[in-house]
């Protein structure tokens, strides 16, 4: 048989519940408007972020389509149309879009034999700290290739040596330019060793590896061990 409820305990519980209810009512009166305002601001912030994210995604898609159209125009010989598409994207807040547009304009300038304009655009990309490093490194390589005839061998080596390392994304292009600069300054041994490294690296494009094998051989460095399994390779003599 259950014990009867203690009247004193029931009274204390009832007083406690009333006190809590009064406290919540007072809190609502004192801070209710602020709580509602905070909730509205929070919901507005979430909604604004979702709206911004949606617009960013749609803008990125639109920019990609514009770049694709510009490349199609460039391929068909419509340089003026390609330029008109790429220029507005050169100031895009999207890093990838901006870098792609600038590099595309630089390539267009090269096709029009405007090396100065191309160099200026490559420099702009290479110096932009806000862009992904891969785009900046690509711009550095293309800039050096564009200016190669006007640069001293030591300038080429100093500029590209950080990129002319096995495992680096542009080791093939940067390494080949550095090796040629070494040759130009008379460092046959250093050039030969670098060409041998290029030939042995499976990540380097095949055309560069094949040239590297031949040039290394002409410098007294046997890189023919890199030839087996390479389609189109020239057999060792």
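-> sequence recovered:
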């Amino acid at each position: 048989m259950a014990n009867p409820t203690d009247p004193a305990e029931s009274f204390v519980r009832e007083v406690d519940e009333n006190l809590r209810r009064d406290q919540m009512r007072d809190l609502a009166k004192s801070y209710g408007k602020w709580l509602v305002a905070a909730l509205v601001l929070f919901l507005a912030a979430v909604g604004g972020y979702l709206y911004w994210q949606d617009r960013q995604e749609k803008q990125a898609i639109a920019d990609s389509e514009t770049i694709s159209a510009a490349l199609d125009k460039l391929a068909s010989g419509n340089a003026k149309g390609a330029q008109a598409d790429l220029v507005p994207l050169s100031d895009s807040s999207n890093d990838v879009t901006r870098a792609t547009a600038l590099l595309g304009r630089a390539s267009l300038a090269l096709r029009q034999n405007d090396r100065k304009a191309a160099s200026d655009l490559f420099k702009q990309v290479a110096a932009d700290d806000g862009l992904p490093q891969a785009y900046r490194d690509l711009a550095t390589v293309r800039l050096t290739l564009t200016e190669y005839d006007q640069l001293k061998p030591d300038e080429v080596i100093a500029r590209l040596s950080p990129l002319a390392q096995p495992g680096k994304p542009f080791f093939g292009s940067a390494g080949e330019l550095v090796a040629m600069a070494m040759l130009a300054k008379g460092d046959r041994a250093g050039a030969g060793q670098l060409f041998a490294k290029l030939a042995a690296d499976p990540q380097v494009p095949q055309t560069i590896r094949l040239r590297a094998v031949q040039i290394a051989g002409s410098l007294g460095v046997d890189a023919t061990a890199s030839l087996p399994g390479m389609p189109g390779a020239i057999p060792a003599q």
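The chain is about 70% helix and 0% strand.
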